[in-house]
Specification:
3 domains; mainly beta; five-stranded antiparallel β-sheet; SH3 type barrels
C-alpha cells in the first residue's frame, strides 16, 4: 500500500480496479492549521487513455498497480493503429493511435527499447525509451549567424510531430528528442 504522499511522476497506481499512471504531481500545503497537505495529481487511465486531475490527501492509501513490463519493438503504423512485436514471444499486437496518445508521435519503424505495460495479462500501454532519434522532415532554412542557443524555430519531424529546435538546424538532420516532454536535446551526427 502506498500513500498519496509517495506519489511521483511515472508511478502506476490502481484505483477502483483500473491501472493509472501518474503523469504529474503537486503538493499543496494548507493555510489552515491542522489541515492535511493535498496532493494534486494528473493521472492517465492505462485502459482507456483518459487523462484527468484528481486531488488526494497525503494520508489517502492506494494500491500500486501490479503490472508487468515486457520488451517490444515497434513495427509499423497503418489505419488500424500501431503494430508492435513482443521480442520474447514474437507475438504481434496492435494499439490504436488514440490509446497511445502523444506517445504515437515518437514511434519510428524498427524502434527498440520500448516496453509494453501489461495489467492482468492484457497490454494497456507502452513505455517509451527516455530519448528517441528522429529526422527533421521540414524546418525553415538556417538563419545566418544564429549561434545563440536561445533562438529556436519549429521543425516537423519524420513522425509528424512538431518540436522547437535551435535555429541553426536544417531539414534532413537527425535530432535527439526527450519523450517525456518533447523537447530537443541534441543534434546527432550521421
Amino acid at each position: 500500500m502506498l500513500t498519496a504522499g509517495d506519489f511521483k511522476r511515472g508511478l502506476r497506481i490502481e484505483i477502483d480496479g483500473d491501472p493509472f499512471a501518474v503523469m504529474d504531481v503537486h503538493f499543496q500545503s494548507p493555510s489552515a492549521r491542522g489541515a492535511s497537505t493535498l496532493v494534486k495529481a494528473r493521472i492517465r487511465n492505462l485502459r482507456t487513455g483518459n487523462v484527468f486531475d484528481r486531488t488526494f490527501k497525503t494520508a489517502d492509501k492506494v494500491n500500486e498497480a501490479q503490472i508487468e513490463l515486457r520488451p517490444i519493438q515497434f513495427l509499423y503504423a497503418d489505419d488500424e493503429g500501431c503494430h508492435f512485436m513482443d521480442t520474447n514471444s514474437y507475438e504481434q499486437f496492435t494499439i490504436t493511435r488514440d490509446a497511445l496518445g502523444e506517445d504515437a508521435g515518437y514511434l519510428s519503424e524498427g524502434l527498440e527499447g520500448i516496453r509494453s505495460v501489461l495489467f492482468n495479462g492484457k497490454v494497456m500501454s507502452i513505455d517509451l525509451p527516455q530519448t528517441v532519434v528522429l529526422r527533421v522532415e521540414y524546418t525553415e532554412p538556417a538563419m545566418r549567424g544564429a549561434t545563440a542557443p536561445a533562438q529556436t524555430k519549429a521543425a516537423k519531424l519524420q513522425t509528424g510531430i512538431t518540436v522547437q529546435v535551435p535555429s541553426y538546424l536544417e531539414t534532413g538532420e537527425l535530432v535527439q528528442i526527450d519523450t517525456r516532454d518533447g523537447h530537443f536535446m541534441a543534434r546527432i551526427k550521421e
